[in-house]
Amino acid sequence: MITINNLSHEFVIGKKGRQTIIPVLKNISFKVEKGEIMTIVGRSGSGKSTLLNLVSGFIRPKDGEIWINGTKVSELNEAKLADFRIHHLGFIFQSFQLIPSMTAFQNVELPLILKGVSDRERKQQTEEMLERVGLLEYQDHYPSELSGGQQQRVSIARALIVNPPIILADEPTGSLDSETEEDLLQFIKELNRDLGITFLIITHDDKVAEIGHRTIELSDGKIVEEGVLV
Amino acid sequence: MKLRDQFRFVRQNMKKNKTRVFMTILATAMGCAFLIVLASVGFGLQKSVVKEMLEQRIVTQIDVHGKEVKDGGFRPINIKDIQVLEKVGKVKAVTRKIMLQQESTYKIGNYQEGAETYVSHFPSEVKAGFELSEGRLPKTENEVVVGYDFPLNLGTTDEVEDLYDNKGHVKKKYRYPENLIDKKLDLTVKQLKNGKHVEKKLQLTVVGIGKKPTREWMQDRSVFISDQVLKEIESFTGTPNGAILGPDEPQQQNPETNERIYDEVKIYAKNMEAVQGIVDQLKDKNYATYSVVNELKEINMVFTIAKAGLIFIGTIAILIASIGIYNTMTMAVTERAPEIGIMKAIGANPKTIKRIFLLESSYIGLIGAVIGTIVSYGISYAVNFSIPLIIKQAFGEEMPAGLTFSDIPLILPIICIVICYVVTIISGYRPAQRAVKVDVLKALRREV
Fold first, then answer.
1. Are B58 and B401 in contact, with CB atoms under 8 Å apart?
2. Superfamily per CATH, domain A2-228
3. Which positions fall inside the ABC transporter domain (chain A) (predicted)?
4. Which of A24, B4, B168, B199 ranks highest by number of CB atoms within 10 Å?
5. What is the pLDDT of residues B121-162, one digit of tens each?
């Protein structure tokens, strides 16, 4: 479960002495229940990416609290935050964020290496995961040798390999064609249904927003609408 | 993340930039080779000097020159001192010799030889390791023991030009042909009495011949007479130890046996480790001593300073190489920033990232150090082989036998590897810190 309490954030831009403070999020509060797909929509500059980055722990909030599964992540130090991420969070990025010099297998295996899982277990789990996303035969291919859809599946496999209870997705279909997008959304729904994984997805795509059990619309750093999927 | 996986990561990363990594390793190897070869000269020369010293001296031997008296001067060693010296712990033997203070000539038939004559204390000499090659020790007052080389220098009294061979011995054809054991030698002693030279002959029987000296270059032509024979000589010369008087020198009082002073006193320690302790004890008792250990200590100190200086100069080469490592690692961090960002985003611990980069820099350093060590062994061998040839060609001089110009003991590569490791860790630390501080969002957006 994710709980956001009175979250505010601002960016300071400009040179020293002529700095400008730009508020990005203004006193936001909401909850994502366990097993829920929550989508956050909004126009560019509305603060949705900043919100996801704050929940991910990539940036620190100016004010407010972020709780994930009973842990106040907004106060964790770098090392504890890294440890928290590897055990509780999976990430799907718009531009996949695969390491180009690693094969599909190595990219998926990476979180298990960071967790210190043994060689044998890693091989078995990675192969199972690649099979699950339908890419076992592509395991020795480098990202540049895969299509956009295949790369995003590798990215999802990497997110799923550590069995995270929560997956944070930043425009997951942003780099995909409509057919691949449909497949991916279906896959996300299956994962949510079969494994009970909680999803927090930010998007500006209505199709993506539609898979959410609830949707929040952000505008100018504030929640302007919160609705339940009918 | 397991250490094995970290090593795998490092190897993969190094493969990505083979040429750059190779050049950095090459620079480090050159620095290490420079350090080792430079310091090996210090080690080599020290080894040669110490070897030379140990070949010429007995390491357990301590010379006692005298005892300090109240006015700051020194007096010779007497029998009471010998008793004190013998009581010092870990002393194996105290040998003492009185030297006949005139040139002694020994003659048998048509053969004669000038030799140094001593009165020695055989029980302590035997304890110290004195051995006979043949015969026995003296039992009566007219029996003597001669050194190993004495029979080899007992030459004809006839005038010949080529008396000696290349070893410094009398040639066999001019040498006394028989075994000297049980042969009688005439010892001639002289004195100046009333302005005239007078001589006295004493007949002595050879009963033993000493063992060949262990050092190749040494010759032992001594003759060991008894205390009674010395007294007889003294009663003829009227001087202590048979000294010849000068033309205007007055008669001197002969010493009593218990007042004798010794010309040469040597202490033999039970082992080399005990030498320093004995020297310290004797120093406390105001005895002036000298041992090869003292000299070794001084020489080793000088060479230690020299070696430390050479290692310091060599370390500068490694420091220069470390700039290359710093540069390589900084570039590696910059190039791999997106990768670092991804790893941090999915949960890599900052310590793990730091360790991977430190491992990489130390990996480069250690490979460089190992290659440098192997190369330096080759250079050392080549130097030892070629320097004598070059000196011979350039200056027409032979190098002293057994001189080692360059020596690499095991400790030297260990020192080099440790220095190299420390330097590479230091040079890799800042890039590793940079890797830790890579901003995840900037890295994911490829902004770093």
1. no
2. P-loop containing nucleotide triphosphate hydrolases (3.40.50.300)
3. 2-230
4. A24
5. 888 988 888 889 999 999 999 999 999 999 999 998 888 888
